[in-house]
Amino acid sequence: MQEKGTISIHTENIFPIIKKFLYSDNEIFLRELVSNAVDATQKAKRLSSLGQFSGDLGDLRVEVAFDEKEKTITISDRGIGMTAEEVKKYINQIAFSGASEFLEKYEKAKDAGEIIGKFGLGFYSAFMVAGLVEIETLSYQEGAEPVHWECDGSTSFEIKKGKRTERGTDIILHINEDAKEFLDRYRLQVILDKYCKFLPVPVKFGTKSLQEPDGEDEEGKPKYKQVESDNIINNTSPAWTRKPADLKDEDYLEFYRELYPMSPDPLFWIHLNVDYPFNLTGILYFPQVKNELEFQRNKIKLFSRQVFITDEVKDIVPDFLMLLHGIIDSPDIPLNVSRSFLQADSSVKKINSYISKKVADKLSELFKNDRKGYEEKWKDIGLFVKYGMITDEKFYEKAKEFGLLTNVKGEHFTLEEYREKAAGLQTDKDGNLVYLYSSDPAVQDTYIQSAAKKGYDVLLLDSPVDNHFVSQLEQKLEKTSLKRVDSDVADKLIPKEEATETLLSEEQVKGVKEVFARAVDKPDMTVEVESLSPGDAPVTVTVDEFTQRMKEMAKTGGMSFYGNMPDRYQVVVNGNHPLILRILNAENQEKQALLARQAVDLALLSRGMLSGAELTAFVNRSVHLIGD
């Protein structure tokens, strides 16, 4: 048997196209060829279970080997092999998939979906790194003869009788000079670990040294000897492929540690398992994220029947869940020929919605079954939930029941519970409900304490998404606004019908404003005199709510032009505080200026705005005043 011919293709330059455009990264040649070998092995097992093959299956592992001297990489399997006619059909006719025909033939058989290879051009990825590719194959069919096929990257091929004596296939790649990086054990091991770590058939790559017990030494201490063992690179039965009923918590945790050995244990997880209207399995873990919004992204890995595809899953997983970790495995996600990029079609959208619903259901279950435990996890999971409420309308509707608001005391409330809590005292003169919040309790403590004196509650909203979350709540909650606790004095944060009586005359108010305007003397600060409670601070420095929100928005990448806006501060002088009258009645203007400047600096200090030379001047002035 010997034959020469040309490969059946529609264009003479198919190989340059394969090499430069169909695959985005040349290392995936190994993924494609090992996947094909696993596919052939799965077919042999399937045919045996259906009674279509009665021979001895034997050792079904796939083996990857390389020879640096000969400049070859060989991928071997003991799968179903191919006859000469099948080689012509499946290899020479590019883009015809043997697996598709196999699936059609056995579509009624249970677990026929185990077949991996339905990607047509996968074999030809070999020419990304090889100038010559050989196939040695022997079909499982009785009486079949071994076949040898080779091609040098042109459209010409040669097929003749082969040398293989056992069922299966060897793919021998003669590596190009510009791809000799792949003739390195470490490089190949890294690629196999990346793409083939969870394939369902054992994959051997050389051997590894192990220590085995070897009796005891003269002192009775145990001795060990070095032995060589097959280096099996994959876990053939990863947690996501098993039934949830067969797994314990420790199994899920061990699998997480296998995926992310340097990460702390996750908070909890969701096992995905659906076969209609699409096929999807996987495990999604909630990591301990805290406030690192971007740090943990791209931790979800996409597989297709246990073959790693990519860790860029933004089209499959809702954006707010990109912070999760774990595995998604689906044969129904459409991929291009390189399996590297997702196409946003209806299947992907359905999967996206399903994942969002499963996460919402899990969070709702946790909240209802163990609210205390849920609240303890809120510091970690709150980021996911708030982000989801902002970006996903359907998720928001579900999350209204388990999304929490936390106050500066560490107390947690659902949206409805907090509305009931704030409804009485924090309703303004126009019937609007006002939620006060702090973005930095340490810096804003003076303002928090001032609000607390009036019986107001203050929420803690300090995560990277909270600026957007505030806007979301204002849009969703009827007649409700949110104000930063340091955006105004306490009396004006929630305007009431009753006004505080003014203790100063109009002339005195004018005088106070002039004294403090001279003491401040900064273009970014304006002075206002207000009639506040005598128990409130004599001077308060505020920044209006709008300005603070826009600047925070700019920090997170939105409305960046607001980040260049100059800071504008309002110095609010409490005309009813005894200190103000004392300053006004000081013996001379110098004393007035000294006391006014001190009062302003105290306000700046409480806001964390006093530093450098101004702080030094404040300290020296304080010493002088104490001495007086």
TrEMBL record:
Q: Which parts of the sequence belong to the Histidine kinase/HSP90-like ATPase domain?
A: 25-165
One Pfam family from the record: HATPase_c_3
Top-rank taxon of the source lineage equals Bacteria
The record's annotation in InterPro entries points to: HATPase_C_sf, HATPase_dom, HSP90_C, Hsp90_fam, Hsp90_N, Ribosomal_Su5_D2-typ_SF
Keywords, comma-separated and alphabetical: ATP-binding, Chaperone, Cytoplasm, Nucleotide-binding, Stress response
A GO molecular function annotation here is:
ATP binding
Gene3D superfamilies linked to this entry: 3.30.230.80, 3.40.50.11260, Heat shock protein 90, C-terminal domain (1.20.120.790), Histidine kinase-like ATPase, C-terminal domain (3.30.565.10)
Record: residues binding ATP: E32, N36, D77, M82, S97, G98, T169, R339
Note the SMART domains from the entry.
HATPase_c
Coiled-coil regions in this chain?
none
PANTHER family annotated for this entry?
HEAT SHOCK PROTEIN 90 FAMILY MEMBER
Similarity section: Belongs to the heat shock protein 90 family.
Q: What is this protein called?
A: Chaperone protein HtpG
